[in-house]
Design the sequence.
């Protein structure tokens, strides 16, 4: 199975919003409540940093995406890489797609000279939390049902 990572195109955001809605089944409290709101959210992420909105394809079909911004302002660290979304459609999980997307996002942060990567993850999303921890992310704060995590970018990917 060959995974291709490429930049997203604005005209495919509606398709990616459908993928997003499927990926959040069972975790709806952390995702957007409707297709329309998911499209608006992904449009906001794309407008904020088109170069950090990357799609994973398998046999020409979009199966996941990451939306990251290497110019995000952190209160305590200045400009950082913020990973806003990392989504893989359920039928393609466990095949290295999330890792390939995350590695591409982390490379973007390093290329921009960032020292830290940050993300938020739902407190009840134990699978994602454990996966991020295995990648070197550590909890640095909480807000309501969300956990703030960060990792240095000057350490090798695991």
Sequence:
């Amino acid at each position: 199975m060959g995974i291709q990572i490429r930049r997203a195109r604005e005209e495919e955001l509606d398709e990616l919003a459908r993928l997003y809605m499927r990926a959040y089944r069972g975790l709806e409290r952390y995702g957007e409540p409707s297709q329309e709101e998911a499209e608006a959210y992904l449009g906001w992420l794309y407008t904020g940093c088109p170069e950090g909105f990357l799609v994973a394809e398998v046999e020409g079909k979009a199966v996941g995406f990451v939306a990251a911004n290497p110019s995000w302002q952190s209160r305590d660290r200045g400009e950082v890489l913020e990973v806003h979304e990392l989504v893989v459609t359920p039928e393609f999980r466990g095949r290295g797609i999330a890792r390939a997307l995350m590695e591409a996002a982390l490379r973007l942060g390093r290329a921009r000279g960032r020292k830290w990567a940050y993300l938020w993850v739902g407190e009840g999303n134990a699978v994602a939390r454990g996966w991020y921890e295995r990648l070197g992310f550590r909890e640095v704060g909480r807000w309501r049902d969300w956990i703030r995590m960060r990792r240095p970018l000057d350490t090798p990917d695991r």
User: Anything to note?
Assistant: The domain at 3-152 is CATH 3.40.630.30 (Aminopeptidase).
